[in-house]
Amino acid sequence: MRLTFHGGFGEKGRTSLAVAGGGVRLLLDAGIDTAATGPARYPAITPAELAGLDALLVTHAHEDHLAALGWCLANRFRGRILMTPETLAERESCLAAYAEPRHRAPAARAPVETFQAGETLAFGDLTVETGRSGHAVGGVWFRVRDVSGASVLYCGDTVPRSPVLAMDPLPPSDVVLFDASYGDDAVPAERRAGDIRAHLAARPGPCLLPVPLLGRPVELLRLLDPPIAIHRLLREPLRAQIADGAWLREGAGADLAWRLDMAHDWSDGEPFPGLPLLVHDAMGLGGPSQEAIPRAVAAGVPILFTGHLPTGSPGALALERGRADWIRLPTHPTWPDNLETLDACGPAWATGHSCPAPVMAALARQRPGVLRTVRVGETLDVAALVRVGA
Fold this sequence. Notes:
Elements lengths: L1 E6 L8 E6 L2 E5 L18 H5 L3 E3 L5 H4 L2 H6 L5 E4 L1 H14 L2 H9 L3 E2 L5 E4 L2 E7 L7 E6 L5 E4 L20 E5 L9 H13 L5 E5 L4 H8 L5 E3 H12 L8 H11 L1 E3 L9 E5 L8 H11 L4 E2 L8 H7 L4 E2 L8 H11 L3 E5 L3 H8 L14 E3 H8 L1
Parallel strand pairs: 3-4, 4-5, 5-6, 10-11, 11-18, 12-15, 13-14, 13-15, 16-17
Antiparallel strand pairs: 1-2, 1-19, 2-3, 7-8, 8-9, 9-10
């Protein structure tokens, strides 16, 4: 097998990885970099390479993993498209918020094959095992194996310790490509949750909390004491994410449904409620938060961001100007989580995606001989990686 790193390695955004073997070529994820413009916004893959792909498999419906789908189609990709039914259900909203207008319609009408988390998919000499990732409803990890038994685990985005979303154990693999979004951050999720509660308790009244449509709003619904307020357009996506208990930890569904029933609806243009208010998206780049963030800034309403803010986004600008606060709510693994993953999976070679190259280089120094750095555009042979690691 060969791996080609088309985006998201040594950088944040446009996550995309090609796996080739036995005459089969797969692309795992096709995301965008919301902080970039021009070619750097999209995976570093040529039209000829896209035309040679047999299939695109998508881990989940966040923009840095899915929103380049239409761009791929516009650049000669004609292979199969596979994702879970839950990811397919969120495809249109992701594309509407982040894809270029000319790419939205082709991506929205492209035929998609669905699979269930836990299924094993066959592509000639390659098989792809799947499991729940704990990051979002519909989100999965992939382990690719060839006929020799060599294996590559692409984790996608994972949350091993989510109190809400279930994650299937990551299997032993020769090569592990893990979610390094938080670099060496070792602060446990429980402490971050306490910090968020304390922050809101010290600021009673309205507080705007921008969130993505998928994943983090479920975590915040579980974290915050009811009642809270939510944008009215967020209610049905939340209801859908809660409805399928197969994606949730045992017992979480009933509690989340009760909390959602307690939440107050809020609409654009209405006065801000005297409650924590969840509005999508998380960065001010799409959805109602595009209007709500500048309104809150102008009115002096507190704003609390809890996730990644791309450079130049409305959220990042509000934070830089001292008009908002930021406390991370972990929806990716901490560094101790990733160390546990490496211990459990036992790879000969591993690297992380979704973090800058200097950060990955610093992490690699903590596990010499196993952790490595790679560059976008690099192609590596799995057998050679295993020999080097051994």
